[in-house]
Protein backbone atom coordinates (compact mmCIF):
# COMPACT_ATOMS: atom_id res chain seq x y z
CA UNK A 1 0.00 0.00 0.00
CA UNK A 2 1.24 3.49 -0.88
CA UNK A 3 -0.07 6.95 -0.07
CA UNK A 4 0.22 10.28 -1.88
CA UNK A 5 -0.78 13.54 -0.20
CA UNK A 6 -2.09 16.34 -2.40
CA UNK A 7 -1.98 19.97 -1.23
CA UNK A 8 -3.93 21.94 -3.86
CA UNK A 9 -4.53 25.66 -4.17
CA UNK A 10 -7.82 26.86 -2.70
CA UNK A 11 -9.52 28.05 -5.90
CA UNK A 12 -12.34 25.83 -7.16
CA UNK A 13 -10.56 25.56 -10.52
CA UNK A 14 -7.58 23.96 -8.76
CA UNK A 15 -9.69 21.74 -6.52
CA UNK A 16 -11.71 20.28 -9.40
CA UNK A 17 -8.66 19.28 -11.42
CA UNK A 18 -6.93 17.93 -8.28
CA UNK A 19 -9.88 15.68 -7.47
CA UNK A 20 -9.98 14.46 -11.08
CA UNK A 21 -6.29 13.55 -11.23
CA UNK A 22 -6.60 11.82 -7.84
CA UNK A 23 -9.46 9.72 -9.20
CA UNK A 24 -7.47 8.79 -12.29
CA UNK A 25 -4.38 7.84 -10.28
CA UNK A 26 -6.31 5.55 -7.92
CA UNK A 27 -8.12 3.99 -10.89
CA UNK A 28 -4.74 3.21 -12.44
CA UNK A 29 -3.25 1.76 -9.23
CA UNK A 30 -5.58 0.09 -6.73
CA UNK A 31 -2.76 -0.10 -4.18
CA UNK A 32 -2.50 3.72 -4.10
CA UNK A 33 -4.29 5.85 -1.50
CA UNK A 34 -4.62 9.61 -1.91
CA UNK A 35 -5.35 12.18 0.80
CA UNK A 36 -6.18 15.78 -0.14
CA UNK A 37 -5.44 18.53 2.40
CA UNK A 38 -7.54 21.67 1.99
CA UNK A 39 -6.49 24.95 3.58
CA UNK A 40 -9.28 26.96 5.17
CA UNK A 41 -9.32 30.60 4.12
CA UNK A 42 -10.19 33.10 6.86
CA UNK A 43 -13.10 34.46 4.81
CA UNK A 44 -14.62 31.19 3.63
CA UNK A 45 -16.34 28.35 5.50
CA UNK A 46 -16.15 25.60 2.86
CA UNK A 47 -13.82 22.58 2.68
CA UNK A 48 -12.65 22.64 6.30
CA UNK A 49 -9.75 20.23 6.59
CA UNK A 50 -6.53 21.70 7.92
CA UNK A 51 -6.92 23.96 10.99
CA UNK A 52 -7.30 27.63 10.15
CA UNK A 53 -4.12 29.69 10.38
CA UNK A 54 -4.46 33.34 11.35
CA UNK A 55 -3.61 35.74 8.52
CA UNK A 56 -4.46 39.44 8.56
CA UNK A 57 -6.58 40.19 5.48
CA UNK A 58 -6.55 43.94 6.02
CA UNK A 59 -4.16 46.30 4.28
CA UNK A 60 -2.36 43.55 2.38
CA UNK A 61 -2.09 42.78 -1.31
CA UNK A 62 -3.09 39.34 -2.67
CA UNK A 63 0.51 38.28 -3.35
CA UNK A 64 1.68 38.99 0.22
CA UNK A 65 -1.47 37.49 1.71
CA UNK A 66 -1.19 34.14 -0.04
CA UNK A 67 2.52 33.88 0.61
CA UNK A 68 1.89 34.32 4.33
CA UNK A 69 -1.22 32.11 4.19
CA UNK A 70 0.69 29.17 2.72
CA UNK A 71 3.70 29.62 5.01
CA UNK A 72 1.47 29.67 8.09
CA UNK A 73 -0.10 26.34 7.09
CA UNK A 74 3.15 24.38 6.97
CA UNK A 75 2.88 23.32 10.61
CA UNK A 76 -0.73 22.20 10.13
CA UNK A 77 0.21 20.27 6.98
CA UNK A 78 3.09 18.59 8.79
CA UNK A 79 0.82 17.54 11.67
CA UNK A 80 -1.86 16.26 9.30
CA UNK A 81 0.63 14.18 7.31
CA UNK A 82 2.02 12.72 10.52
CA UNK A 83 -1.44 11.85 11.82
CA UNK A 84 -2.59 10.27 8.57
CA UNK A 85 0.53 8.11 8.23
CA UNK A 86 0.66 6.96 11.85
CA UNK A 87 -2.97 5.94 12.11
CA UNK A 88 -3.32 2.26 13.02
CA UNK A 89 -6.13 1.91 10.49
CA UNK A 90 -3.91 3.19 7.68
CA UNK A 91 -1.00 0.95 6.73
CA UNK A 92 -0.19 2.80 3.51
CA UNK A 93 3.42 3.96 3.15
CA UNK A 94 3.84 7.65 2.37
CA UNK A 95 5.60 7.93 -1.01
CA UNK A 96 5.36 11.64 -1.73
CA UNK A 97 3.59 14.98 -1.57
CA UNK A 98 1.98 16.52 -4.66
CA UNK A 99 1.91 20.29 -4.21
CA UNK A 100 0.27 23.02 -6.21
CA UNK A 101 2.45 25.17 -8.47
CA UNK A 102 2.01 28.13 -6.07
CA UNK A 103 2.81 26.16 -2.88
CA UNK A 104 6.50 25.39 -3.26
CA UNK A 105 7.14 26.19 0.40
CA UNK A 106 5.40 22.88 1.18
CA UNK A 107 8.54 21.13 -0.14
CA UNK A 108 9.83 21.61 3.42
CA UNK A 109 7.08 19.31 4.70
CA UNK A 110 8.03 16.57 2.23
CA UNK A 111 11.69 16.96 3.22
CA UNK A 112 10.84 16.47 6.90
CA UNK A 113 9.22 13.12 6.09
CA UNK A 114 12.07 12.25 3.72
CA UNK A 115 9.78 11.69 0.76
CA UNK A 116 9.93 13.32 -2.68
CA UNK A 117 7.72 16.22 -3.61
CA UNK A 118 5.97 16.48 -6.97
CA UNK A 119 4.23 19.47 -8.50
CA UNK A 120 0.76 19.63 -9.99
CA UNK A 121 1.08 22.39 -12.59
CA UNK A 122 -2.41 23.59 -13.50
CA UNK A 123 -1.34 25.75 -16.44
CA UNK A 124 0.26 24.77 -19.76
CA UNK A 125 3.68 23.68 -21.07
CA UNK A 126 4.61 27.09 -22.46
CA UNK A 127 3.96 28.74 -19.13
CA UNK A 128 6.07 26.10 -17.38
CA UNK A 129 8.87 26.47 -19.93
CA UNK A 130 8.80 30.24 -19.46
CA UNK A 131 9.08 29.98 -15.68
CA UNK A 132 11.93 27.49 -15.91
CA UNK A 133 13.69 29.75 -18.43
CA UNK A 134 13.48 32.65 -15.99
CA UNK A 135 15.11 30.39 -13.42
CA UNK A 136 17.90 29.61 -15.91
CA UNK A 137 18.43 33.31 -16.66
CA UNK A 138 18.94 33.94 -12.97
CA UNK A 139 21.15 30.89 -12.29
CA UNK A 140 23.38 30.97 -15.36
CA UNK A 141 23.37 34.60 -16.47
CA UNK A 142 22.91 36.51 -13.22
CA UNK A 143 19.74 38.21 -14.50
CA UNK A 144 17.25 39.22 -11.83
CA UNK A 145 14.35 37.04 -13.01
CA UNK A 146 12.33 37.90 -9.92
CA UNK A 147 11.88 41.39 -11.35
CA UNK A 148 10.09 39.85 -14.34
CA UNK A 149 7.82 37.49 -12.40
CA UNK A 150 7.38 36.05 -8.95
CA UNK A 151 10.43 33.86 -8.41
CA UNK A 152 9.95 30.09 -8.69
CA UNK A 153 13.14 29.36 -6.78
CA UNK A 154 12.26 25.85 -5.67
CA UNK A 155 10.99 24.26 -8.89
CA UNK A 156 14.17 22.23 -9.22
CA UNK A 157 13.88 20.67 -5.77
CA UNK A 158 10.91 18.56 -6.83
CA UNK A 159 11.10 15.14 -8.47
CA UNK A 160 8.60 15.63 -11.28
CA UNK A 161 5.82 17.84 -12.62
CA UNK A 162 2.29 16.72 -13.51
CA UNK A 163 0.91 19.14 -16.12
CA UNK A 164 -2.78 19.61 -16.89
CA UNK A 165 -2.11 19.50 -20.63
CA UNK A 166 -2.00 17.09 -23.56
CA UNK A 167 1.18 16.52 -25.56
CA UNK A 168 -0.99 16.71 -28.69
CA UNK A 169 -1.73 20.39 -28.15
CA UNK A 170 1.75 21.66 -27.27
CA UNK A 171 4.17 19.10 -28.68
CA UNK A 172 6.86 21.70 -29.47
CA UNK A 173 6.82 23.19 -25.96
CA UNK A 174 6.88 19.71 -24.42
CA UNK A 175 9.94 18.79 -26.51
CA UNK A 176 11.77 21.81 -25.12
CA UNK A 177 11.13 20.42 -21.63
CA UNK A 178 12.39 16.96 -22.59
CA UNK A 179 15.97 17.91 -23.38
CA UNK A 180 17.45 16.08 -20.40
CA UNK A 181 18.20 19.34 -18.60
CA UNK A 182 14.91 19.60 -16.72
CA UNK A 183 13.15 17.28 -14.32
CA UNK A 184 10.56 14.74 -15.57
CA UNK A 185 7.34 16.25 -16.94
CA UNK A 186 4.13 14.21 -17.10
CA UNK A 187 1.48 15.56 -19.50
CA UNK A 188 -1.76 14.19 -18.00
CA UNK A 189 -4.43 16.64 -19.24
CA UNK A 190 -6.88 17.89 -20.08
CA UNK A 191 -8.26 16.54 -16.79
CA UNK A 192 -11.86 15.78 -17.71
CA UNK A 193 -14.14 12.99 -16.55
CA UNK A 194 -15.12 11.43 -19.87
CA UNK A 195 -17.42 8.92 -18.16
CA UNK A 196 -19.60 11.36 -16.25
CA UNK A 197 -23.07 12.36 -17.36
CA UNK A 198 -22.02 15.99 -16.99
CA UNK A 199 -19.41 15.61 -19.71
CA UNK A 200 -21.81 14.12 -22.23
CA UNK A 201 -25.08 15.94 -21.68
CA UNK A 202 -24.76 18.14 -18.62
CA UNK A 203 -26.27 17.77 -15.15
CA UNK A 204 -30.01 18.09 -14.66
CA UNK A 205 -29.53 21.39 -12.86
CA UNK A 206 -27.38 22.80 -15.65
CA UNK A 207 -29.63 21.45 -18.39
CA UNK A 208 -32.67 23.25 -16.99
CA UNK A 209 -30.73 26.49 -17.33
CA UNK A 210 -29.30 26.15 -20.82
CA UNK A 211 -30.79 23.34 -22.91
CA UNK A 212 -32.70 25.89 -24.98
CA UNK A 213 -29.75 28.27 -25.24
CA UNK A 214 -27.36 27.78 -28.11
CA UNK A 215 -24.17 29.70 -27.44
CA UNK A 216 -22.03 32.26 -25.74
CA UNK A 217 -21.45 34.50 -22.81
CA UNK A 218 -20.55 38.17 -23.30
CA UNK A 219 -21.32 41.70 -22.18
CA UNK A 220 -24.84 43.10 -22.13
CA UNK A 221 -25.02 45.43 -25.14
CA UNK A 222 -22.94 43.19 -27.37
CA UNK A 223 -25.15 40.25 -26.40
CA UNK A 224 -28.32 42.14 -27.04
CA UNK A 225 -27.19 43.47 -30.40
CA UNK A 226 -25.84 40.12 -31.55
CA UNK A 227 -29.30 38.47 -31.27
CA UNK A 228 -27.48 35.18 -30.69
CA UNK A 229 -28.64 32.85 -27.92
CA UNK A 230 -26.52 33.07 -24.78
CA UNK A 231 -25.92 31.99 -21.21
CA UNK A 232 -24.21 34.62 -19.05
CA UNK A 233 -22.60 33.65 -15.76
CA UNK A 234 -22.58 37.00 -13.96
CA UNK A 235 -20.89 37.28 -10.57
CA UNK A 236 -20.11 40.12 -8.17
CA UNK A 237 -16.73 41.84 -8.61
CA UNK A 238 -14.46 41.66 -5.59
CA UNK A 239 -14.40 44.81 -3.44
CA UNK A 240 -11.40 46.94 -4.36
CA UNK A 241 -8.49 46.36 -2.03
CA UNK A 242 -10.09 43.36 -0.32
CA UNK A 243 -9.33 39.64 -0.50
CA UNK A 244 -12.49 37.54 -0.66
CA UNK A 245 -14.23 34.73 -2.51
CA UNK A 246 -16.52 35.61 -5.45
CA UNK A 247 -20.26 35.52 -4.88
CA UNK A 248 -23.50 35.80 -6.84
CA UNK A 249 -26.00 38.65 -7.11
CA UNK A 250 -29.32 38.08 -5.35
CA UNK A 251 -30.83 40.12 -8.18
CA UNK A 252 -28.65 41.16 -11.15
CA UNK A 253 -31.23 43.63 -12.45
CA UNK A 254 -29.57 46.57 -10.75
CA UNK A 255 -26.20 46.09 -12.51
CA UNK A 256 -27.59 45.47 -16.00
CA UNK A 257 -28.90 48.01 -18.51
CA UNK A 258 -32.52 48.92 -17.84
CA UNK A 259 -34.84 46.48 -19.57
CA UNK A 260 -32.01 44.18 -20.69
CA UNK A 261 -33.47 41.04 -19.13
CA UNK A 262 -36.88 41.69 -20.67
CA UNK A 263 -35.49 42.45 -24.13
CA UNK A 264 -33.31 39.33 -24.16
CA UNK A 265 -35.71 36.96 -22.38
CA UNK A 266 -36.30 34.85 -25.49
CA UNK A 267 -32.65 34.42 -26.42
CA UNK A 268 -30.68 34.42 -23.20
CA UNK A 269 -30.36 33.62 -19.54
CA UNK A 270 -28.35 35.39 -16.81
CA UNK A 271 -27.27 33.16 -13.92
CA UNK A 272 -24.70 33.15 -11.10
CA UNK A 273 -22.15 30.41 -10.66
CA UNK A 274 -22.12 27.95 -13.57
CA UNK A 275 -20.99 24.31 -13.86
CA UNK A 276 -18.42 25.18 -16.51
CA UNK A 277 -17.34 21.72 -17.63
CA UNK A 278 -20.92 20.50 -18.02
CA UNK A 279 -21.90 23.59 -19.98
CA UNK A 280 -18.93 23.60 -22.34
CA UNK A 281 -19.44 19.87 -23.00
CA UNK A 282 -23.01 20.48 -24.12
CA UNK A 283 -23.33 19.92 -27.90
CA UNK A 284 -25.28 23.14 -28.51
CA UNK A 285 -22.54 25.43 -27.18
CA UNK A 286 -20.90 27.22 -30.09
CA UNK A 287 -18.30 29.27 -28.22
CA UNK A 288 -17.54 31.11 -24.99
CA UNK A 289 -15.83 34.22 -23.67
CA UNK A 290 -13.04 33.65 -21.15
CA UNK A 291 -10.46 35.64 -19.17
CA UNK A 292 -8.08 32.80 -20.21
CA UNK A 293 -7.43 31.08 -16.94
CA UNK A 294 -6.20 27.60 -17.97
CA UNK A 295 -9.22 25.62 -16.75
CA UNK A 296 -11.39 27.59 -19.15
CA UNK A 297 -9.22 26.35 -22.00
CA UNK A 298 -8.82 23.14 -20.78
CA UNK A 299 -2.73 31.09 -15.23
CA UNK A 300 -0.87 33.56 -16.96
CA UNK A 301 -3.86 34.81 -18.88
CA UNK A 302 -2.10 36.86 -21.55
CA UNK A 303 0.34 34.04 -22.28
CA UNK A 304 -2.60 31.63 -22.66
CA UNK A 305 -4.40 34.12 -24.89
CA UNK A 306 -1.39 34.61 -27.14
CA UNK A 307 -0.94 30.86 -27.51
CA UNK A 308 -4.57 30.15 -28.34
CA UNK A 309 -5.02 33.11 -30.69
CA UNK A 310 -1.66 33.59 -32.39
CA UNK A 311 0.06 30.21 -32.24
CA UNK A 312 -2.70 27.61 -32.27
CA UNK A 313 -5.50 29.50 -33.98
CA UNK A 314 -8.12 28.12 -31.58
CA UNK A 315 -9.56 31.42 -30.33
CA UNK A 316 -10.49 34.95 -31.35
CA UNK A 317 -8.94 37.93 -29.58
CA UNK A 318 -11.14 40.58 -28.04
CA UNK A 319 -8.49 42.40 -25.99
CA UNK A 320 -4.94 41.22 -25.38
CA UNK A 321 -2.68 44.29 -25.41
CA UNK A 322 -3.42 45.54 -21.90
CA UNK A 323 -0.87 46.02 -19.12
CA UNK A 324 -1.07 45.17 -15.43
CA UNK A 325 -2.68 47.98 -13.49
CA UNK A 326 -4.07 49.68 -16.58
CA UNK A 327 -7.71 50.60 -17.02
CA UNK A 328 -9.05 48.34 -19.77
CA UNK A 329 -12.18 49.37 -21.64
CA UNK A 330 -13.61 46.96 -24.18
CA UNK A 331 -16.38 48.35 -26.38
CA UNK A 332 -19.57 46.55 -27.38
CA UNK A 333 -18.37 46.79 -30.98
CA UNK A 334 -15.15 44.90 -30.15
CA UNK A 335 -17.05 42.18 -28.32
CA UNK A 336 -19.60 41.97 -31.12
CA UNK A 337 -16.83 41.52 -33.67
CA UNK A 338 -15.37 38.69 -31.60
CA UNK A 339 -18.77 37.03 -31.33
CA UNK A 340 -19.31 37.10 -35.07
CA UNK A 341 -15.85 35.67 -35.79
CA UNK A 342 -16.05 32.80 -33.32
CA UNK A 343 -19.63 31.87 -34.28
CA UNK A 344 -19.04 31.89 -38.05
CA UNK A 345 -20.10 28.50 -39.37
CA UNK A 346 -17.56 26.29 -41.15
CA UNK A 347 -14.74 28.71 -40.36
CA UNK A 348 -11.11 27.58 -40.14
CA UNK A 349 -11.02 28.29 -36.42
CA UNK A 350 -14.05 26.09 -35.72
CA UNK A 351 -12.51 23.25 -37.73
CA UNK A 352 -9.26 23.53 -35.77
CA UNK A 353 -11.18 23.49 -32.48
CA UNK A 354 -13.06 20.34 -33.51
CA UNK A 355 -9.82 18.65 -34.56
CA UNK A 356 -8.08 19.52 -31.29
CA UNK A 357 -11.10 18.41 -29.26
CA UNK A 358 -10.91 14.96 -30.83
CA UNK A 359 -7.14 14.73 -30.20
CA UNK A 360 -7.51 15.81 -26.57
CA UNK A 361 -10.18 13.19 -25.87
CA UNK A 362 -8.08 10.47 -27.48
CA UNK A 363 -5.16 11.43 -25.24
CA UNK A 364 -7.20 10.57 -22.15
CA UNK A 365 -8.40 7.08 -23.06
CA UNK A 366 -6.50 3.82 -22.59
CA UNK A 367 -3.42 3.93 -24.84
CA UNK A 368 -3.59 7.70 -25.29
CA UNK A 369 -0.61 9.95 -24.56
CA UNK A 370 -1.99 11.46 -21.33
CA UNK A 371 -3.21 8.07 -20.08
CA UNK A 372 0.25 6.58 -20.74
CA UNK A 373 1.98 9.51 -19.04
CA UNK A 374 -0.16 8.99 -15.95
CA UNK A 375 1.00 5.35 -15.97
CA UNK A 376 4.62 6.49 -16.09
CA UNK A 377 4.07 8.65 -13.03
CA UNK A 378 2.49 5.72 -11.16
CA UNK A 379 5.54 3.60 -12.06
CA UNK A 380 7.80 6.39 -10.71
CA UNK A 381 6.15 6.52 -7.28
CA UNK A 382 6.36 2.73 -6.99
CA UNK A 383 10.17 2.86 -7.02
Automatic annotation (TrEMBL):
GO terms for molecular function: UDP-glucosyltransferase activity. The keyword Cell membrane does not apply. The keyword rRNA-binding does not apply. InterPro entries: UDP-glycosyltransf_plant, UDP_glucos_trans. Keywords: Glycosyltransferase, Transferase. Belongs to the UDP-glycosyltransferase family. This is UDP-glycosyltransferases domain-containing protein. It comes from Prunus persica (Peach). The lineage of its organism: Eukaryota, Viridiplantae, Streptophyta, Embryophyta, Tracheophyta.
Amino acid sequence: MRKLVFIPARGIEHLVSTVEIAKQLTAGDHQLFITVFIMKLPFNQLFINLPKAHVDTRNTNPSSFFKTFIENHKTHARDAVSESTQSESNQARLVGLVINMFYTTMIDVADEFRVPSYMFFTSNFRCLAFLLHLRTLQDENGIDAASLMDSKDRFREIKGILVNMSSKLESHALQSLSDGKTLPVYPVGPLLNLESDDFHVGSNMARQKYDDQLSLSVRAYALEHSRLRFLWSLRKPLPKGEIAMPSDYADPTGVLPEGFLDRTAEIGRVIGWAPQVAILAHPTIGGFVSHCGWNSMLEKQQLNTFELVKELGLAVEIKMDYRKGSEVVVSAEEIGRGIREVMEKDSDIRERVKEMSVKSKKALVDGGSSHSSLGCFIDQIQL
